Amino acid sequence: AIADWRGAGAALSAPALELGLRQLPDGTGGLELSGPVRMSGPSGVGAITDLALPLDLAVGWGNGVRVTTAGGGCLPLRFARLQTPLLDIGTGSARLCPIPAGLYAQASGGALAGGFTVAPLDLAGAYLDIGTGQLTTGAITGAFTGTGATARLDLAIDQPRLIATPVAAGAVAGHRHRRFGARRRHRPAVAV
Q1: Is the model's pLDDT at 35 over the cut of 90?
Q2: In the structure, what pLDDT confidence band is assigned to residue 64 with cuts at 50, 70 and 90?
Q3: Pick the residue with more confidence: 10 or 173?
Q4: How far apart are CA 133 and CA 67, in angstroms?
């Protein structure tokens, strides 16, 4: 169990974490992790508060390493607050689902595979301290690729759309109802 770890502006707790370990004579084995996990802290260009995740992961090794959900299903995520440069979002939720290769996989030669999908999002919050905003997306997918120094996580966000509305018409000079959108947007690869 991790009662309450804090450092570098982040917090992590997993008070009822259960571990199961198996090791076979042929060198293969696995680790199962389950239990509620709660995290807060910096997240890329923003911050997240009280991200709650009912952890249910299986890690297997032998001819490489593979991480997936223990039952192959999705993991529900909930958060109390998500802050980004544009939006300050209150309570929200999402479902993180592994792709068939698993959430993360690394072959014995080092090649990465695996990834995830997140069901479409519909989140609302304060927009740049001048009004309200609503962020909607289609599916979000992430895929691990490469090896060693070329390892990366590629993210794709289908149909992202941000609708921003000032608090009152004319309340902020030069600002009107604005819509931001695209059919498909790819985020640059993130080094792993």
Answers
A1: yes
A2: very high
A3: 10
A4: 36
**Residue 80, beta-bridge partner list:** none
**Amino acid making up residue 163:** I
185 pLDDT above the threshold of 70: no
Please give the Cα distance from 68 to 72 (Å, whole number). Answer: 7
